[in-house]
Amino acid sequence: MIDPSWVAGLGVFLFCIGLWGAFTRKNAIIVLMSIELILNAVNLNFIAGAAQYGDATGWVYTAFAIAIAAAEVAIGLAIFLAMYSQHETISLDEVKLLKH
Amino acid sequence: MMEANELAILIPVLPILAMPVILFLGQLFNGNAKWKGFWKEGGTISTAVMAIVFLLSLWLIVGHVSAFSEGSDDAIVTDVGNWVSYQLFTEHGDMKAQDLGFGMQLDHVSVMLLFVASFLCLLISIFSMGYMNTDKINENRNHRFYAEFVLFCAGMFGMVLADNFLWLFIFWEIMGLCSYLLIGFYYERPSASYAAKKAFLTTRVGDVFLFVGLLIMHAEFGSWDFSVVFNAANIGAADAGLIKAMLLLMFIGAVGKSAQFPLHVWLPDAMEGPTPVSALIHAATMVNAGLYLVARMFPFFAAPAMAGELSDVALLIAMIGGITAFMAAAIAFVQKDIKKVLAYSTMSQLAYIFTGLGASLWFVNNGHDELAFFAFGASMFHLFNHAMAKGMLFMASGSVIHEMHHAHHHLEHSEGEHDEDDEDHFDAQDMDNMGGLASRMPITAIAMAVGSASIIGIPLIGGFWSKEGIVGSAWKAAMYDGGGLFIIPAILVLLTAGMTGFYMSRMWFMTFAGKPKTEVAAHVEETTPFIPIPLVTLTIMTLGGIIFAGLNFAGWLGENSSNLSLSHAPSHLWHEITHAFLALGSDGKIDPLILIITWTTILLSMVIGPFYAMSLYGGKLAKGQKAHWSIAWIVALSGRIHSSYKFDNSVWAESGLSTALRNRLYFDQWYDALMLKIVVPFSYAAAWFDRRIIDGVIKGIETGSQEASRNIRSLTTGSARDYIMMAALGTLALFLLIWGVA
To answer: Would you call B721 and A92 a contact, using CB atoms and an 8 Å cutoff?
Structure first.
């Protein structure tokens, strides 16, 4: 059995990669992937916690998070499609719709 | 009688309701032929309302007079209803509930004023239908005149009936507003709008003082009700010094409203309004309001607690009266405008009444009740006589001006070359353009002769009965211990009697005697409808002064006797005549002082004044012209005196004094200079303070928040990555915060 602290450490590592990706990439799909990475880093954190304390709540939350993340990906991709059909680009540098 | 009291509320309410009706209908039917023809652009409504009000007033007055004759000596008070209730903090810190209701009080003085106001308002309304509706310049805006007119009348009725100083003040202000609107009726003329502003602002100076006085009254008595305020016990409990201050402040208000020195400057300019307005302001309503207020002060002076305390207030009132009487009469000497002469004559006559009231208040304050009632009655009777005579004189002058104007128009048209610009060069009010009208306008000429005689105080006509009493009272007050200073107003009013004789005769002879001074005057004809009705009515009223004297009207007004009975009239008239001409006192002895003063007054006012006027301005009519028999002899006499006694008055006419009088003693210039020196810099300073400090703070807040929001707004780039960054940083900051606290 792997020590839960390694799992948590992997979570932190993945979280940082995800955050870095979300900050630096222009392509909306890559940013979405980075956000998924962040989510999964959090999932790993839950699992580490659950393993450490022998509490099933962490597992349950992880299952929820995966389901919601799937839904979120579906919505996100749909938004990108709509964005592309309107602006013919999915580069986040050029799309600043949130200002309004 | 009960019904009359219940309906009394309609007297002020009906005209108030008529105002929006006339305005609305006027807007709706403006230009409509029937509206102009039958409805007289609202004149018919106004006259109908005034007729109803007059009948109601008569009903009320008759009931009141008979109630007094039956021995009830209290004023009739009707409570109409509560208007507002409020809580008042007493000295001990607890609250006291207070009601402010509108009620009506009728006593001798308010009954007299109610009669004067409703009677004259009705006649002026009839006069206006002739005067206003036949002049092209008023077409399609007469409804505005009638609407403002009825509201003005409502203000007077309400003020006279109110049983409460606050309501008195409210109606007083309604009159102030309407005077502003009516004087500025021809608002397209700069002089008229200037005059309107001047009248409003000058009376406002007095009103501010009056209101401060009323606030002191409320602080002292906790109420404005006559029944509370006039209660001798309440007056005794109040602070004597504050009562004195209150009366002085209220008197300043009266000075402004009644156009006395030094707040008199608005009244001559008020002539810019249409002539019915002049009659309304100078006879029926506005100027009487100030006198009414001073007359209402009587109980304060009569209260035992104040005995002797208020002598100097009474003296001040008489002084202001004496000074104004003399000054206004002097200025009237040199005026060329027929209405301006009458305006100054109004000021002068009102000043008489103030002098009489001052003497009356002094007497009652010093314990000479009998003399006080006499002076009070004489003053109120003079108010009555003056209102009747002056209302008639103004309407007669309006008739002259109107016909002069029409004749001028007629001449212009017949010459074929009608020039619009030329109209301004001809002044239909300038007496230098008149002359010889006695034969062309018989009704107006007779009315003016009777009115002038009443104002002058020719024996047995109107004003004579009351003026004697006022002059005599002032002299009597001067003879008493401590009243020595009354000698100044006493001498001034005596001299003024002679001056009145001169300037009123001068006006009459310049207008009606001699040969026509212009082509226009030779073509004047008396044809306008409605105008003769009020003139004839008021001529009869003024000549009927002798009947009122016989009824002991003055004594009744002074609350000396509670009886107005016809059966005593002949004997009382005889008593009045012996009293007036032989100065017979009630003890049957002749008072030599009063005898001398009476005959000096008669000599000055009836002989010397008119004699000078005749020699300077008299003259026979043109050949072929005949005046009515009742005035023909005056014209003939003036022609004879004019040709036999020549006075060279050029030295006087060109003197500095005469120029000063022509410029109204430079009061306007002084006031304007004072305004420029004090008020204008103060206004500039206030404007700077407002712009920089008050607006500056508000604007600072506004620009500051805008600047801040602009800076914050630049954070919202719209880019999703920036928001992620901000969320991350925010979470980090939160985390650090929690960590730090933990």
So the answer is: yes
What is the SS3 assignment for B135? coil
CA distances from B96 to B222, B644, B699 (A): 10, 78, 44
What lies within 8 Å, CB to CB, of B428 at 6+ separation is: B401, B404, B405, B408, B520
Interval B225-270: pLDDT, tens: 888 888 888 888 888 888 888 899 999 999 988 888 888 888 888 8
* Chain A CB within 8 Å of residue B727 CB: no
**Which chain A residues are closer than 8 Å to B725 by Cβ?**
23
Assess B717–A contact: CB distance below 8 Å, yes or no: yes
**Residue A40 vs residues A48, A63, B61, B638: alpha-carbon distances, Å:** 12, 11, 102, 125
> Cα distance from A35 to chain B (closest Cα, Å)?
10
Query: Are B304 and B236 spatial neighbours (Cβ–Cβ below 8 Å)?
Result: yes
Per DSSP, the three-state class of B81 is strand
CB contact under 8 A, A22 and B723: no
Q: Using one digit for the tens of pLDDT, what is the confidence trace for B203-230?
A: 888 899 999 999 988 888 878 888 888 8
Mean pLDDT across chain B: 82
A 10 A CB-CB count for B640 gives 15
Which residue is listed with tokens 């009669």?
Answer: B115
Cα–Cα distance measured from residue B169 to residue B217, given in angstroms and rounded to the nearest whole number: 13
* Structure tokens, B151: 């509201």
| Each residue's pLDDT tens digit, B356-381 | 999 888 888 888 888 888 888 888 88
| B236: its two tokens | 């005794």
pLDDT on residue B404: 84
B422 pLDDT band (50/70/90 cuts)? very low
Contact flag A98-B728 (C-beta cutoff 8 Å): no
Shortest CA distance to A21 belongs to which of A46, A43, A8, A39? A39
Tell the residue number behind the tokens 């120029």, with chain if given. Answer: B659
B592-602 and B487-512 helices, crossing angle to 10°: 20
- What share of residues in chain B are helix, strand, coil (percent, to 5)? 75, 5, 20
The shortest C-alpha distance from A100 to chain B (Å) reads 7
pTM: 0.77
Q: Which of B713, B724, B735 to mutate to test the interface with A (most CBs of A within 10 A)?
A: B724
Cis upstream peptide for B262 (omega within 30°): yes
Q: Give the least confident one: A20-24, A66-70, B78-82, B575-579.
A: B78-82
Question: CA B512 to CA B450: how far, in whole Å?
Answer: 13
Which residue, among B721, B723, B725, B732, would best test binding to A if mutated, counting the most A CBs under 10 Å from its CB? B721
Q: What is the DSSP letter of B455?
A: H
- Pairing assessment for the beta strands B95-106 and B76-89 based on DSSP bridges: antiparallel
Select the highest-mean-pLDDT range: B375-389, B506-520, B633-647, B709-723.
B375-389
- Strand ranges (E), B517-623: none
Rounded CA gap, B95 and B393, in Å?
55
Could you list the beta-strand ranges (E) of chain A.
Answer: none
Give the pLDDT score at B225: 82
User: Would you give the DSSP letter of residue A56?
Assistant: T
Of residues B313 and B553, which shows the higher confidence score? B313
Which residues have CB under 8 Å from B221's CB, separation 6+?
Answer: B228, B229, B234, B238
Residue B562 predicted with pLDDT over 60 = no
Q: Which residues of A touch B (CB under 8 A)?
A: 19, 22-23, 28, 31, 92-93, 95-100
- Residue B725 in contact with partner chain A when CB distance is under 8 A: yes
CB of B718 within 8 Å of a chain A CB? The answer is yes
Residues ≥6 apart with Cβ < 8 Å to B663: B669
Number of CB atoms found within 10 A of residue B144's CB: 19
**What gap in Å lies between CA B311 and CA B318, rounded to an integer?**
11
In this structure, how many other beta carbons lie within 10 angstroms of the beta carbon of residue B567?
8
